[in-house]
């Protein structure tokens, strides 16, 4: 998607090891832990990678209360698209990324917030 230094950055990776390497690269380029997210179609896998990489989780701060509650009742694919759009991506981009996640890839997103 964009280059490092842009407001929102996303990269699809083949596995958790690559995702952790990408998180470390993003930290080295100035992104903070609180602004880096790891997303996977498998919730357990996502949690393991996020814990190992020490990244933030998409939650109330990003989705808002309504979005977080709605995700409790959505399919995993719908919830993932909602999370991705809450981080600044269009619905079309979110749909593309969700299909790639369906295929087993891992998505790393970094967002810079105004200081």
Describe this structure in words.
This protein is of the alpha+beta class and 115 residues long. It has one domain (8-111). It has helices at residues 16-28, 43-53, 60-71, 76-86, 91-102; strands spanning 8-13, 36-40, 106-111. A three-stranded antiparallel beta sheet has the order 1-3-2, sandwiched between helices. The longest helix is centred in the N-terminal third of the chain and has 13 residues, at 16-28. The chain is globular.
β-strand amount: 5-15%
For the largest beta sheet, what order do the strands appear in spatially? Answer: 1-3-2
H-E string: EHEHHHHE
Helix content: 40-55%
* Class by alpha and beta content: alpha+beta
Biggest beta-sheet profile: 3 strands, antiparallel
Mean pLDDT equals 81
Number of helices: 5
Number of structural domains: 1
Number of strands: 3
Principal-axes geometry comes out as globular
Observed structural traits:
115 residues; alpha+beta; 5 helices; 51% helix; globular; disordered N terminus
Short description:
The chain is α+β, with helices and mostly antiparallel strands and 115 residues long. The protein has helices at 16-28, 43-53, 60-71, 76-86, 91-102, and strands at 8-13, 36-40, 106-111.
Give the helix/strand layout:
Elements: E1 8-13, H1 16-28, E2 36-40, H2 43-53, H3 60-71, H4 76-86, H5 91-102, E3 106-111
Antiparallel strand pairs: 1-3, 2-3
Helix pairs in contact: 1-2, 3-4, 4-5
Protein name: Heat induced stress protein YflT
InterPro entries: GSP17M-like_dom
Domain General stress protein 17M-like: 11-104
